[in-house]
Amino acid sequence: MRNALIIPSLMMMLILLAGCMSFLEPEEEADVEAEEQGATAQVSAEIPSLSNYYRTVFQDGTYVPGHARGFGSAMVYNRHDLERLEVGLSEIASNEFSPEDYYIQEGRFITRNDLNSWLSRQDNTEDDEGNPENPNGLNPQLGEGETLIEREANAPRVLSHITEHNFMRQTSEGDLAVGGVAIAVSLNTTYTYRVTDDDGLQHGPFNTEISEEQLDTARDEISNEIVSRLRTIHSGGEDNVNLDDVPIVVAVYHETTRESTTPGEFVSYAVAEPGSDLGGWTELDETHHFFPSSSASNNAPADADRFNEFHMQLNSYFSDHIGATALGYYQNGELQELTITVPIRFQSKMETIAITQQVAELVEDRFPTNVDIVAKVESNDQQEALIQRPAGTEEVDVYIYD
């Protein structure tokens, strides 16, 4: 494990560097109809940022993973989507379940077999015993068409993944009990698939765009069905948990394309209060921009110019080119978080320190103080330094790894 010297500000870093110091460190198998939800949507709520994460539940001193551990990596192609799904769901759920009052644990109510069945296509074909193959699939049955390619394209799989978080509260007896559930419903905006012919040869990938109307319909039907199933399966039976007695938050996520350098976005969420169906959808407006890129220049020109100035000034101090990049997170069109990556070729510890100094100084000088800033200096896939400036502060904190 690497150690880190924690330096609270750029000025402190310069003082310490002037003296004597020791560096320490810190595709597609894995598919129902329900009543459409007709409630009125609200517009553009903010998603809280979790500066303090939820406390985690340890059972008998041991971390207990969810039933679907590792399932997401097999279903969600883009790593950016996987990370945003988990963190974003916790942020949205904090509107209903305060981190001060609730503990968090990975989902324990949707089993791995359930998840596999729900994410597959609905299939009412009867097996040898006369039972439907997969009546619980939340993705549609294959569509009409003369070829398998046409049938896949005419009924795209909209549902990509389901993420579950459980929120626990302490009872008057000091025990932990389920106080709420949060579900992320992750939808494809583009359905990518391959097909295998009779000779076992695979063809593709093929892409089918999914319309906003299809996404809205899937959101309503799938979300309501998941809430209904959770409350039906867990109604105080063998597991002694009655999910009809707790709120269930459902957040809907639109995945990005497979080759994207940015995550997708949460587009809406709703709450099913105890004993009730899902309420009205609260619409969300979040997006990400990668710097430098034409998309960032076109959609966030002021931030793109600011990053380009940062990048050019950083390079003016060193003979070797430094190809910095950044990922910006936006809510309602306003930059909330900026994560900067500064890859370097390690030449010496002193040069690494010098680069870290300049990055820290430029972060203080170039970027507004109402934005959370994180900058990472990396070499050969190893992190050399970390610079942080939380929103609302003026000085940076610097960690140099040994």
Automatic annotation (TrEMBL):
Signal peptide annotation: none
Residue numbers spanned by region Disordered: 120-143
Pfam families given in the database record: CamS
Residue stretches of biased makeup (Low complexity): 132-143
The protein's name: Protein involved in sex pheromone biosynthesis
